[in-house]
Design brief:
single chain, Aspartate Aminotransferase, domain 1, Aspartate Aminotransferase, domain 2, 13 strands, binds pyridoxal-5'-phosphate
């Protein structure tokens, strides 16, 4: 029998979300998550995936994944520290270290897992973490897991960061202090002010941790935000994901050899959760090789995103202050945002509404993720639909 407490908790909470327009309906994609997707039999221009470089459906990645299944089977069979470490995992980690320009890399099952793993392997209740207020949920949860004191810093406010770093150091309360930030902020597409963050970190002897989930594959010729600013030697933890631009699944932390050695013996998802499958590891390695060989995919990504941004701006949409391909269309009200996204869908564009709690209340938006796999014709068609729906709903 179900607990009556649970039943009343769930029905009250679900009703609450639905009445505020905050309940997210999930639409299954029928087939590949490419530039065009099919949902309920309907073809749509896809502006919602994180598949920035189109690698999720790349033939080269598919081939090595199939080959890996033939040779290694479908599962790694164990956690990394028992005997789930295949030669494929080490090859991926070596490639990633070369790509990122660091001494070593440890890979995990996801980017989310990296943040669960790495922060609490190093930080504890006697430490403090200076965390940007717009940091990703996995950073927030990773910080909480560590039990360190979390000091929220106003978004990209360097005066606030310096002030709070100074106070934390002068308080004498903490053993170690870390500053942690997204490299690219996923809801607005702005880039962290890493050169200033690193200067402040050096002034106050803070550890630096950059979560580059949306920077990897996109900035710094694909190697990420830290490389973009030339700061490889000045950032302690470079976390990245293999699930977004790399097109597969997984995550990694790049840094000094000793840090990686420590994470390999201390970080719990590495010790207690099964290693990534052979096919995924092989496909990720292939993707990194492709990115190291050529910037063709990145160039096309940036061309497409510049084109889409220019088009939306000319139509009169508020696209915020994005510096990357992430292109929000800020609508504001949650219900209006969902209505806008629904009408885009009916007209043939899949651009998901993003509302509270993913973004602050009153900052609802439809977030567009152009990729290198989109053609100009697709983007033109999307812009025509944006114009129609924008005028119809009185947004432009
Ligand atoms: C998506 C994302 C993650 C999680 O990465 P996964 O590999 O999808 O688990 C972590 N941090 C940020 C900033 C992200 O955008």
């Amino acid at each position: 029998m179900t607990s009556t407490k649970l039943t009343s908790f769930l029905s009250e909470k679900l009703e609450g979300l639905k009445s505020q327009g905050l309940y997210n309906e999930i639409d299954p994609v029928e087939g590949a998550n490419g530039a065009i997707i099919t949902i309920k039999g309907k073809e749509l221009i896809n502006l919602s995936s994180n598949n920035y470089l189109g690698l999720a459906t790349d033939e080269r990645l598919k081939k090595v994944a199939i080959d890996a299944v033939k040779t290694y089977g479908v599962g790694a069979g164990a956690v990394r520290t028992i005997n789930g470490t295949l030669d494929l995992h080490l090859k991926l980690e070596e490639k990633l270290a070369a790509f990122k320009g660091t001494e070593a890399v440890i890979s995990y099952q996801s980017g989310f897992n990296c943040n669960m793993a790495a922060i609490s392997a190093v930080m504890d209740k006697n430490d403090a973490i200076l965390s940007d207020e717009l940091n990703h949920a996995s950073i927030i949860d990773g910080c909480r897991l560590s039990k360190a004191k979390i000091i929220r810093v106003n978004h990209s406010d360097m005066d606030d960061l310096r002030q709070k770093a100074k106070e934390a150091v002068e308080s004498g309360q903490y053993n170690k202090i870390m500053v942690i930030t997204d490299g690219v902020f996923s809801m607005d597409g702005d880039v962290a002010k890493l050169p200033e963050i690193v200067d402040i970190a050096e002034e106050f002897d803070l550890m630096t941790y950059v979560d580059d989930a949306h920077g990897s594959g996109v900035l710094g010729k694909g190697a990420g935000t830290v490389k973009h600013f030339g700061l490889q030697d000045r950032v302690d933890f470079q976390m990245g994901t293999l699930s977004k631009a790399i097109g597969v699944i997984g995550g990694y932390v790049a840094g000094k050899q000793e840090l990686i050695d420590w994470l390999k013996v201390q970080s719990r998802p590495f010790l207690f959760s099964t290693a990534v499958t052979p096919a995924d590891v092989a496909a990720s390695t292939e993707a990194i090789e492709i990115l190291m060989d050529s910037t063709e995919l990145q160039n096309r990504l940036w061309e497409n995103s510049d084109y889409l941004k220019k088009g939306l701006t000319q139509l009169g949409f508020d696209i915020g202050n994005s510096e990357t391909p992430i292109t929000p269309c800020i609508i504001g009200d949650e219900k209006a945002t969902q209505q806008f996204s629904k009408r885009l869908y009916e007209e043939g564009v899949y651009a998901k509404s993003i509302v509270f709690p993913t973004v602050p209340k009153g900052k609802g938006r439809v977030r567009n993720m152009p990729t290198s796999a989109h053609t100009k014709e697709m983007l033109d068609q999307a812009l025509t639909i944006y114009e129609k729906v924008g005028k119809e709903l009185g947004i432009i």
